[in-house]
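okkk here we go again. third time trying to get the L4NPZUNZ bound version out, last two times i messed up the smiles copy paste (missing a bracket lol). double checked this time i swear
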Amino acid sequence: MDYDPPFLETYNTLLQGANNISDINDHKSSMVQKCDEIPLIDLKRLKLSHLEREECMKEISEAARKWGFFQVVNHGVSQEVLERMHFQQKEVFRTSFVIKSQENFLNLPSRSYRWGNSFATNPKQFMWSEALHMFVPDLAKMIHHHKSLRSTIEDFVTVVTPLAEKLVEILAQELNIKFNYFQKNCSSNTCYLRLNRYPLCPFPSKVIGFLPHADSSFLTIVHQDHIGGLQLMKHGNWIPVKPNSQALIVNIGDLFQALSNGVYKSVEHRVIAAEKVERFSMAYFYSPSIDAVIESYATPPLYKKFTFGEYKDQIMKDVKEGGDKVGLSRFLL
Ligand SMILES: C=C1C[C@]23C[C@@]1(O)CC[C@H]2[C@@]12CC[C@H](O)[C@@](C)(C(=O)O1)[C@H]2[C@@H]3C(=O)O
Ligand SMILES: O=C(O)CCC(=O)C(=O)O
Ligand SMILES: [Fe+2]
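finally!!
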């Protein structure tokens, strides 16, 4: 069978004798714990009585401290927009690999389309997935005949940005961080959107869909389809995030962990590959401009002060050298 993208050809030598490669769950922090579930928070209470609003805000802040991950319903992003996004995403990934991997695919900057992990230094770092990683301002460059993809993404960005802002405002308020820090440094034009596709994988126990990682954002908002496969690390166990088509998944990113001096947790997560079903997800990364300074709100700080540009450069350097992101630990004091 031919795979699109051509993972097998590329990973071939390293995958030869897949039986000799250890399973993705063969290391100590590998138990999959099915009973624990991330909090599900109903945001409609933000518009109800003062008491209900306060209760909802507390739940958000507690989930960010304890889990770094939660799901929200009544979030204001309509099912119609989410369904259109999934439809458009399926369409764009259906484009032939030869076209997708062209430098100027969709007229986006080179390397916006990514597949697998071209920097993998060992089979554990392979990724059985492809992605379109877009910087929101670049959408304006998307060519005319992709008008429906572009306008759908724009519609999504228009509604998901205020949601991200609302959540960040609540999280900031709970720690007495001034919200105008975010107003000064972030807008939809400093954010990223990532569309992910996880094609059928012939050896799902040997390769990962998406490597364990933490996000390099303040906050990420994800919508996954009905398949499942996203897992987060908690107390040494992988906890699956149950698909819920009505819900959006929210997770704290590295930048909020640094800003909150470790109070809010940027938690490692991964996506396992599946043999019989393909899977789609989308992630909106609420991130600041490149020159924004990230500095702990409390003393003594756990991390050195850095700009988002410095953070991204360090990640790229680590990925190029070792096949994977090191992340916030690089900035520990
Ligand atoms: C192969 C990789 C892509 C990625 C860095 C990594 O080594 C594993 C994590 C990936 C991720 C996920 C969150 C963000 O989108 C991202 C920019 C990040 O910092 O880590 C991406 C990286 C990327 O796409 O370059
Ligand atoms: O596919 C998913 O559910 C999550 C993807 C993800 O973690 C990411 O794009 O950063
Ligand atoms: Fe992620």
